[in-house]
Design goal:
single chain; alpha/beta; Rossmann fold; 11 helices; 6 strands; 41% helix; binds adenosine-5'-triphosphate; binds nicotinate mononucleotide; transferase; Probable nicotinate-nucleotide adenylyltransferase; NAD
Length: 213
């Protein structure tokens, strides 16, 4: 199973997340994508961050009828830094091939992440162009190191077994949507988010069994 991992605050999830995920799945030939709804981005302030349950619920709303599984795996396994999460997922799902997905805004900050080279050595990375961030991303300190590992999307898609580091740059019709704009227009979105707790499909299976696929 080729699986894309999109980590994020999802504060809240929006149509841009869904659209870039579906585009990336098509471009990279992925079977499914998991959205890792973060317990708290280590570089973002806690202030203004809606509860995890509300953010996860918004992710379920946006992922409807798509091969996208919103999860709270990091809260479940107790990781917060991406390098720890990705290593844990590779251990738990040894037969899966994972690729880390992120927008260009995150590439421009990537050198500030804990052991970012370790992230890149754990699995391939695909970066999705984002309006307003692409120039900074291309000029970023992480890109200076990562660019030697660049692989065209078309050849990545046809590779049987992936290796890392590998960097794929994806450029689609750019999507200007952002959670910041949504919060600005609707600061109380989370307080109206209610209902049954969502079932976290991947976490559920992770607790039940060791998947082995
Ligand atoms: N419109 C978009 N185009 C490309 N990538 C995006 C887009 N929106 C979100 N992403 C990417 O999706 C992941 C999760 O994003 P996140 O949940 O932080 O949403 P956001 O819209 O960037 O939020 P905020 O505005 O609060 O920073 C990140 O890797 C981010 O770069
Ligand atoms: O590991 C780190 O040091 C690190 C620093 C900043 C962000 N991240 C991860 O990057 C992903 C995107 O975060 P965000 O808030 O931009 O949606 C999310 O999975 C975060 O946990 C990870």
């Amino acid at each position: 199973m080729k699986t894309g991992l999109l980590g994020g605050s999802f504060n809240p999830a929006h149509g841009g997340h869904r659209r870039i995920t579906l585009f990336a799945m098509e471009a990279l030939g992925l079977d499914e994508a998991w959205w890792l709804v973060s317990p708290g981005n280590p570089l973002k302030p806690r202030k203004g961050m809606a509860p995890l349950a509300a953010r996860l619920r918004s992710a379920h709303d946006q992922a409807r009828r798509a091969p996208i599984r919103p999860t709270a795996i990091e809260a479940q396994i107790g990781t917060r830094y991406t390098v720890d999460t990705l290593k844990a997922l590779k251990r738990r799902y040894p037969m899966r091939q994972f690729v880390w997905l992120m927008g260009a805004d995150n590439l421009s900050q990537f050198h500030r992440w804990r052991d970012w080279r370790g992230v890149a050595r754990t699995m391939p990375i695909a970066v999705i162009a984002r309006p307003g961030y692409d120039d900074d991303a291309m000029a970023s300190p992480a890109m200076a190191w990562l660019r030697r590992y660049r692989v065209p999307a078309a050849s990545f898609k046809t590779r049987g077994r992936w290796s890392a580091p590998a960097l794929v740059l994806l450029r689609f019709d750019p999507d200007p949507r952002s959670a910041t704009a949504i919060r600005r227009a609707d600061p109380d979105w989370a307080s109206r988010s209610s209902g049954q707790p969502v079932r976290d499909a991947v976490t559920h299976r992770l607790i039940q069994t060791s998947e082995g696929t």
